[in-house]
Amino acid sequence: MASKRKRVEPKIVKGAAIDRNKRVSSAPDGLYDPANPGHRWERPLQAPGRMQVDFEERVDFRRLHEYRLARTKNALAKSKLGAILVFDQINMRYISSTVIGEWARDKLTRWCLLTGNGEPYVWDFGSAARHHKLYAPWLPKNHALAGNVGLRGAINPRVGLFEEAAQEIKDILVAEGVADMPLGIDVVEPPFLFALQKLGIKVMDGQQVMLEAREIKNYDEITLLNMAAAMGDGVYQDIFEALKPGVRENEIVAMATKRFYEMGSDCVEAVNAIAGERCSPHPHNFTDRLIRPGDQAYFDLIQSYMGYKTCYYRTFTVGSATKAQHDAYKKARHWMDSAIAMLRPGVSTDQVARMFPKSTEIGFETEMSAFGLNFCHGLGLGLHERPLISRLNSLKDPYELKAGMVFAVETFCPAKDGVSAARIEEEVVLTPQGAKIITLFPAQELPIANKY
């Protein structure tokens, strides 16, 4: 006769009760540091499909939320600030993982408060606050509030909305024990600033804290940036095929914008299209100019996927190319390759800046007047993050590059014909071994579209 086995109840393991240093595999919810970027440098940088699937890990958005919040809290703890109040939509998204679209970009009517002792508070436009309570469970229910301080003066300040909002913030600072510490702010309407100061709140610059937090991208951020770059690869194939005499710059912009939104872009911020005699100096815009045979034409694709930006230049000629156009392109590519070869963790930014030509080499009198033509800038939720490397600033204020940074490298070289110019940009991820390029449309040699 078989003996009866004693029933053993399954053990319920709670993450909060686990020693995180032991890394017990049976309770993964409590066993990772949310501020750890989780890089997997031994693997290729992935650019997966946009659908959710159950058979492979793609982007883990909850992990992304926790990482960004933890990075902000760590940066805040290292500062002299007790809390940070942000109005910039990039910073607000980074901290709170809330967004209501491109409409809000220039309104200054959404804001977010994070104290060193609490969770994010979000003041949003009307019904959006109720939406967050339903669809953003990572925010405490009472931390999503309706807010309005007048839509940049449309409601007169004498109504008192600034004072009411400032008092709400002061009450939270008191409740969370940081009212006697400085409050960091990124950008703000002057009446809001004055209302805070009237309540005795010491206001300091908070933007540097946010830029420090956003500097190192985690695994999910790098994946999203790579996915956004892959979308740019596809749009450049469309542009390459469409570049024919008779096509207008604005038609290329329209085509590129439509294609990005079809692929899942959440904002096409700008598509620069510059051709022919407009190439030098660089105007940073587009017109209705007709493309002509032999034109040099360059484009910049600035768009975002899940908030993560591209800044992606490519230069083409139409039908044929002259020696002057080829020579300018070779110079721009040489500067590009020299800068990328320098990009390694531990390298100082002034060393990279010296790889770029002086302003006088490209026909400008000062580094200020040539700024933005040969430089590097960080990419993330923002278009210009750290590192920002140029001869204008990096020779005076160098700092060390770190693995996990993602940035764009841009070069520009005017041609000797006086009108053409080459403009190249590569987006790179800084790995422990050096820079990994994620913008893959061919650019080692000057591409000739619809060659005769």
Tell me what you see in this structure.
By secondary structure, the protein is an alpha+beta fold. Mean pLDDT is 93; it is low at 20-30. The chain has 10 helices and 16 strands. It has 2 domains: 63-214, Creatinase/prolidase N-terminal domain (Creatine Amidinohydrolase, Chain A, domain 1, 3-Layer(aba) Sandwich); 219-449, Creatinase/methionine aminopeptidase superfamily (Creatine Amidinohydrolase), CATH 3.90.230.10.
Radius of gyration from CA coordinates:
25 Å
Structural class: alpha+beta
Note the beta-strand portion.
Answer: 15-25%
User: Low-confidence runs (pLDDT<50, min 5 residues)?
Assistant: 20-30
Residues in helix, % = 25-40%
Predict the CATH topology of the largest domain. Answer: Creatine Amidinohydrolase
What would CATH call the architecture of the largest domain? Alpha-Beta Complex
Q: Give me the strand/helix succession.
A: HEHEEHEHEHEHHHEEEEHHEEEEEE
Task: Count the E strands.
Answer: 16
Number of domains: 2
**What is the terminal-to-terminal distance?**
91 Å
Q: Widest sheet: strand order?
A: 4-3-2-1-5-6
Q: How is the main sheet built?
A: 6 strands, mixed
CATH superfamily of the largest domain: Creatinase/methionine aminopeptidase superfamily
Helical element count?
10
The average pLDDT value, as a whole number, equals 93
Q: Give the CA-based shape.
A: globular
CATH class annotation of the largest domain: Alpha Beta
